[in-house]
Design a protein that fits this description.
The protein is an alpha+beta fold. 39% of the residues lie in helices and 14% in strands. The strands form 5 sheets. The chain has a 5-stranded parallel β-sheet with strand order 5-2-1-9-17, with helices on both faces. The chain has a 5-stranded antiparallel β-sheet with strand order 11-15-14-12-13. A 4-stranded antiparallel β-sheet has the order 16-10-18-19. The chain is globular, with a radius of gyration of 25 Å. It holds the Pfam family Succ_DH_flav_C.
């Protein structure tokens, strides 16, 4: 077991990033044009990194499996992006954003990285406004803010319920400018299937053209992995169907340590599962918790009547409703962090108070918001003695202006009008805080290989606060990686072009072809989805919202058996040398079947509860997470040595010099 060097600069917290930028090595503009960089993934992290590095003068190749970078899963982020601008004048600051993020992550993230994230957050907003991102504005003309879970200020900038889409279009427009200049060479509908290591350094990738099936070699002086998270290991998640762990897993198997895989976020505000026919889940933005109140009936008989269809939610009187988050966490109420809200919803449903047919749903009710906003609007319009109906009508119009597209999406999926009856929600897998281990420079344990955005582990600890994913992705891409990658590339100014006609590229391509042929030639009897769904059920039932040692041990054995069955009985039609979507899925599921075991292994080894990792053996009398700071205040970084069962643990000890470590409380 080794000790990892995070390379966090010395000195006062608020000066670390500035000092680091002033002292790292640079590449002059004349040399940048002779250096090539590969970026895998073109969502917010990859797209912003590619555009910025190309603007600096590097030659960039981008790879994405979608038909356009505009289709990256970043487009699905709805609620907003955090930044410490303090436009509301409510006491926000870089330090408060830093503190909230570390506390929200249950004291399992790096101080240095998180403070840097807070420090550059304001620059992100300026950058995006300059690109034309249509953030909402308040009456005075300043950008509007709303609140998200785990904080006591309003710092979330938003564009209705389409924030991710609008930010991605900004990054995509910046990319297009560089594509037009010839500085970015885009390879859409391409999937990275391996990384190429030459003399110990990342020097390129092997990719498959998903239209023709052709295997291609691409060289570069550095490789950036920005391919997102691995939530689809659960099969049902809020992630796009194509989201996968393959790029991260391939570099893991070539030497990049995988950190904290068990830190996975369960989002409390998702449309509930309706049956086995589903292939994904839909997120209802956390922004809805600004105005929606979460409740279940106080009486079990009312819950039973709701499930049987004998009672409508609007027929349950106010005094018979249990607003359980407001009851349990009065200081934060409905805006507690996601892990806290998710476990609370599960506890109520497990106790028999679930409100839908399956018993796994709670209500998100906007009735109070309609009346509150309606009264404000009536006062603004100087209406005398408006009726209750008129007030409600005015309030609905305000809510529609803030969240209208989300309400439309809910009605299309559930076939219920959320303006007339409360939404039903339940927790679902959403985001992965774990990922590839990187140092302060975002460099992995493979020299020359970097990881950005959700693909790395660095900023969120054991739980991500809402609206911080977009912040981290754009911080990494626009403001961190373009600086730090130069420190590495400054040693490559005399290297010249990297040839793909070498033994290392030949071996990597041969390995990729052999794996694809093995999949195609299995000629089994079960579909890829059959294995993926079975893996997902193991993960959700035994490695999901709550975990215990017996279940985790069973999960590891079951995943090992399922993986062996997969390689002996998966059925993939067609050939490898053509467009073949089943072959694409098979490769991704094969990687999930390895990651799933490491995920469970990591959860089993971490004998504490923190953030999104909840071990049933380690909880307070009130059912809250019980950390073990004495024994587990470290990053668990796993080294691949042949099989997930044989992964070797490396520890990066976490030190808190600027923040007091204490039990999280949102009461």
């Amino acid at each position: 077991m080794g000790i990892l060097d995070s390379k966090i600069p010395k000195g006062p917290l608020a000066e670390k990033w500035t000092k680091h930028k002033n002292t790292i090595n640079l590449v002059n503009p004349a040399n940048k044009r002779n250096i090539d960089v590969i970026v895998v993934g073109t969502g917010l992290a990859g797209g912003s990194a590619a555009a910025t590095m190309a603007e600096l003068g590097y030659n960039v190749k981008t790879f994405c499996y979608q038909d356009s970078p505009r289709r990256a899963h970043s487009i699905a982020a709805q609620g907003g992006i955090n930044a410490a601008k303090n436009y509301q004048g409510d006491g926000d600051s870089n330090y408060r954003l830093f503190y909230d993020t570390v506390k929200g992550g249950d004291y399992r993230s790096r101080e240095g990285n998180v403070y840097r994230l807070a420090e550059v957050s304001g620059n992100i907003i300026d950058q995006c406004v300059a690109q034309g991102v249509p953030f909402a504005r308040e009456y005075g003309g300043l950008l509007d803010n709303r609140s998200f879970g785990g904080v006591l200020v309003s710092r979330t900038f938003y564009a209705k319920g389409q924030t991710g889409q609008q930010l991605l279009l900004g990054a995509y427009s910046a990319m297009n400018r560089q594509i037009n200049r010839g500085k970015i060479q885009p390879f859409n509908r391409h999937e990275m299937l391996d990384i190429v290591i030459v003399d110990g350094k990342a020097r390129g990738i092997i990719a498959r053209n998903l239209i023709t099936g052709e295997i291609e070699r691409h060289s570069a002086h550095a490789v950036v992995i920005a391919s997102g998270g691995y939530g689809n290991v659960f099969f049902l998640s809020t992630n796009a169907m194509g989201s996968n762990v393959t790029a991260s897993w391939k570099i893991h198997k070539k030497g990049a340590y995988f950190a904290n895989p068990c830190y996975t976020q369960i989002h409390p505000t998702c449309i509930p599962v309706s049956g086995d026919h589903q292939s994904k889940l839909t997120l209802m933005s956390e922004s809805l918790r600004n105005d929606g109140r979460i409740w279940v009936p106080k009486k079990k008989e009312d819950a039973e009547s709701l499930r049987a269809g004998k009672l409508k939610p609007t027929e349950i009187k106010e005094e018979d409703r249990d607003y359980y988050l407001e009851r349990r966490y009065p200081a934060f109420g409905n805006l507690v962090p996601r892990d806290v809200a998710s476990r609370a919803a599960k506890e109520r449903c497990d106790a028999g108070y679930g409100v839908n047919r399956t018993g796994e749903a709670v209500f998100l009710d906007f009735g109070s918001a309609f009346m509150r906003y309606g009264r404000e609007e009536a006062n603004t319009q100087h209406l005398d003695n408006p009726s209750e109906e008129k007030i409600k009508e005015l309030g609905k119009a305000v809510v529609e202006a803030k969240y209208g597209n989300l309400f439309q999406m809910y009605e299309k999926i559930v076939d219920q009008n959320p303006y007339e009856t409360p939404m039903m929600i339940y927790p679902a897998v959403h985001y992965t805080m774990g990922g590839i281990w990187v140092d302060y420079n975002l460099e992995t344990t493979i020299p020359g290989c970097f990881a950005a955005g959700e693909a790395n582990f660095s900023d969120h600890g054991a739980n991500r606060l809402g609206a911080s994913a977009l912040m981290q992705g754009l911080a990494d891409g626009y403001f961190v990686l373009p600086y730090t990658i130069g420190n590495y590339l400054s040693q490559d100014i005399s290297t010249g072009n990297i040839s793909t006609e070498t033994a290392e590229f030949e071996a990597a391509e041969k390995e990729v072809r052999a794996r694809l042929e093995k999949l195609i030639n299995t000629k089994g009897t079960k579909s890829v989805d059959n294995f993926h769904k079975r893996l997902g059920k193991i993960m959700w039932n035994k490695v999901g919202m709550s975990r215990n040692a017996p279940n985790l041990k069973e999960a590891i054995s079951e995943i090992q058996a399922l993986r062996e069955e997969f390689w002996n009985d998966v059925k993939i039609p067609g050939t490898a040398n053509e467009k073949n979507s089943e072959l694409e899925k098979a490769g991704r599921v094969a990687d999930f079947l390895e990651l799933g075991e490491l995920f469970a292994k990591d959860a089993l080894h971490r004998e504490e509860s923190c953030g999104g990792h909840f071990r049933e053996e380690y909880q307070t009398e009130e059912g809250e997470a019980l950390r073990d700071d004495e024994n587990f205040m470290y990053v668990a970084a796993w080294e691949y040595t042949g099989q997930p069962a044989d992964a070797v643990l490396h520890k990066e000890q976490l030190e808190y010099e600027n923040i007091q470590v204490k039990t999280r409380s949102y009461k």
